[in-house]
């Protein structure tokens, strides 16, 4: 490592977004979403989900499956209307461990779906007659809420033989292969949709659902279509990209794809911080670490040596922490600005009303201060909006699973 290090304050400027930039981002995002909605060329999508908002009165016991890109979670959930819900069983396994890896091009669709089916079996307690809702957190084409076909993988997953196929079809075949023909997949939805359904079910009136975990995305309820629309916000190309963002993109599995996600999603914030650090500390390589480790470094649970494998001076540590925090802050601000774009679309000429935004994911749940940075950025994205404008970020744990059960209830 060279002794001379860059001035971190100059580097920080690259990551800062002022009110004018946030405002521009919000307007761009709105225009790009409206283009997608109208069928014009757009870096966003307007994928129809065929699901409206729940009444909160839906009841019954369902299997819920959540496949997000890092873990597979199956649960048996009872929806109790006004009394909420109970998660009766829950089985979760990572897609990748020291012993196996179901994410790469060397696995097969059958192996992946058999793995998923075995997790469902454990959570269901055997071959019992349940309807199942499947939260499948990737871009899909749907013609009904019952099933969908994968458009393309993201989040560094690259399993062959799944794109273009019916997802609930692959699941059903795997359930049958694994002796569970009584379990019936009846609904398929995106995790953003699940988050929105779950929040509304729990009496938090929201029109926007956001996920910022491994990946990033946004959906909203479009009154003109009477259904929730999945924007596949990860694909937005209007964000202010730095050289570091370009580098992260170039080194990813699908360069040029999901560029906004690579500035916001937990799968990439660590990579972004790593390339920034190589620049800051002027070194050719730094061992990889996770976004969780990065956060633990800032919260004091881990030392620089724990995360990077070497020590730095106190001055370097100050710069390094400031740059890392900026990576998180910028991600949260971009979420706020994009949300404001959609709130503006929904409000039209009317004044913005008090409302909640349903949001799930490690960025809001694990990283201190993120919800208020998002709320602040919503306000700053619209110059005229006063500090006190009541937009509440409602973090929503288990939204992907609860939403899958609600979708199953809506589809039977
Ligand atoms: C996928 C979205 C998903 C998001 C969050 C993105 O990579 O394309 O469909 O909602 O990740 O999980």
Automatic annotation (TrEMBL):
Pathway: Carbohydrate degradation; Carbohydrate metabolism
Residue intervals of the Hexokinase N-terminal domain: 9-201
Domain Hexokinase C-terminal: 207-410
Keyword list, A-Z: ATP-binding, Glycolysis, Kinase, Nucleotide-binding, Transferase
KW Iron (keyword) present: no
Reaction catalyzed: D-fructose + ATP = D-fructose 6-phosphate + ADP + H(+)
Protein family according to the UniProt entry: Belongs to the hexokinase family.
Name of this chain's protein: Hexokinase
């Amino acid at each position: 490592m060279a002794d001379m290090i860059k001035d971190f304050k100059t580097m920080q400027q690259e990551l800062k977004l002022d009110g004018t930039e946030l405002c521009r981002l919000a307007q761009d995002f709105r225009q790009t979403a409206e283009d997608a909605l109208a069928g014009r060329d757009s870096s966003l999508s307007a994928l129809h989900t065929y699901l409206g908002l729940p009444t909160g009165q839906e009841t019954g016991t369902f299997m819920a499956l959540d496949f997000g890109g890092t873990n597979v979670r199956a649960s048996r959930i009872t929806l109790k209307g006004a009394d909420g819900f109970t998660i009766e069983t829950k089985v979760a396994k990572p897609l990748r461990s020291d012993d196996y890896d179901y994410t790469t091009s060397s696995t097969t669709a059958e192996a992946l779906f058999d793995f998923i089916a075995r997790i469902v079996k454990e959570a269901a307690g055997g071959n019992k007659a349940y309807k199942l809702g499947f939260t499948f957190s990737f871009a899909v084409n749907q013609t009904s809420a019952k099933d969908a076909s994968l458009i393309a993988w993201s989040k560094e997953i690259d399993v062959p033989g799944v794109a273009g196929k019916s997802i609930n079809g692959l699941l059903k075949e795997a359930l049958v292969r694994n002796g569970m023909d009584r379990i019936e997949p009846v609904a398929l939805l995106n995790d953003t949709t699940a988050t929105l359904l779950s929040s509304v079910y729990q009496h938090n009136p929201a029109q926007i659902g956001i996920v910022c975990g491994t990946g990033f995305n946004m959906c909203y309820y479009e009154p003109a279509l009477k259904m929730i629309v999945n924007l596949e916000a990860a694909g937005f190309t209007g964000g202010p990209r730095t050289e570091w963002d370009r580098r992260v993109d170039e080194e990813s599995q699908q360069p040029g794809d999901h560029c906004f996600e690579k500035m916001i999603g937990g799968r990439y914030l660590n990579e972004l911080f790593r390339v920034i650090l190589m620049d800051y500390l002027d070194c050719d390589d730094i061992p990889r670490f996770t976004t969780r480790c990065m956060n633990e470094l800032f919260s004091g649970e881990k030392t620089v040596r724990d995360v990077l494998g070497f020590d730095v001076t106190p001055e370097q540590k100050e710069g390094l922490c400031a740059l890392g925090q900026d990576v998180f802050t910028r991600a949260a601000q971009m979420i706020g600005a994009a949300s404001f774009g959609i709130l503006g679309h929904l409000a039209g000429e009317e004044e913005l009303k008090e409302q909640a935004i349903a949001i799930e994911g490690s960025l809001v749940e694990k990283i201190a201060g993120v919800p208020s940075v998002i709320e602040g950025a919503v306000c700053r994205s619209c110059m005229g909006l006063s500090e006190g404008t009541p937009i509440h970020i409602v973090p929503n744990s288990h939204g992907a699973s609860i939403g899958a059960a609600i979708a199953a209830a809506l589809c039977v």
